[in-house]
Specification:
20% strand; 3-stranded antiparallel sheet; 6 strands; alpha+beta; 37% helix; Beta-lactamase Inhibitory Protein, Chain:B, domain 1
């Protein structure tokens, strides 16, 4: 598209000086070009815009700037979705890892009730350890129970091998001092046990 006009005569009111700049920017955003130059006593303004046929029905084709904005928004949405997905996957992985360790801890630290019953206070530690599981219970730190014998080191072992058992929290506590077993206790998951609680309340 080309437009021609006369050169401005003396005495005409001047514009703000940004008309062609603003027009050129709008043409550029639409993917076109603008050329303005003097021709003799007048001037010529030529604008070239791309012609992109739109779909049937007269739907307008978005300008390049609108398309870039839409693409930026889509990238932000994709990044947000990926971040949320990664966080959920991390949480799920952590939950699986914790559940797996709890199952492993329960199975490998279970002491059969018959073996616990055969243990005797005063027994040599080496004899006791010969019947103990490969490892003590890892999640038993701080469990309440009867007073620990003075100077003794206590280890906890599970009573049940099933990690999903209702009484998974039942534990055996074995305390050693100077190479001897000086204490053996059963610690139910709910401490104190009902009988002890009634005795404490009656005092």
């Amino acid at each position: 598209m080309t437009a021609r006009g006369e050169h401005r005569r003396e005495g005409m009111i001047a514009g703000g000086g940004y008309g062609l700049i603003g027009l050129a920017e709008r043409v550029r955003l639409c993917g076109g070009t603008l050329r303005a130059e003097r021709r003799g006593d007048g001037f010529e303004l030529a604008v070239r815009l791309p012609h992109v046929p739109g779909p049937a029905g007269g739907t307008r084709t978005p300008s390049p700037s609108t398309a870039r904005l839409g693409e930026a928004r889509r990238r932000v949405r994709r990044a947000r979705t990926l971040a949320i997905g990664a966080a959920l996957a991390t949480c799920a992985g952590a939950a699986v890892a914790v559940s797996g360790f709890m199952a492993y801890d329960t199975v490998t630290s279970a002491l059969p009730a018959a073996d616990f019953d055969r243990l005797r206070v005063g027994q040599d530690r080496a004899e006791v350890e010969a019947v103990l599981p490969a490892r003590p219970r890892a999640d038993a730190a701080g469990r309440p129970g009867p007073p620990v014998p003075a100077g003794a080191e206590c280890l906890h072992y599970g009573k049940h091998r099933n990690p999903f058992a209702e009484r998974r929290g039942d534990l055996y506590r074995l305390c050693f001092r100077d190479g001897r077993l000086v204490g053996k206790d059963f610690l139910p998951a709910a401490w104190p046990p009902p009988a002890v609680a009634r005795q404490e309340a009656a005092r």
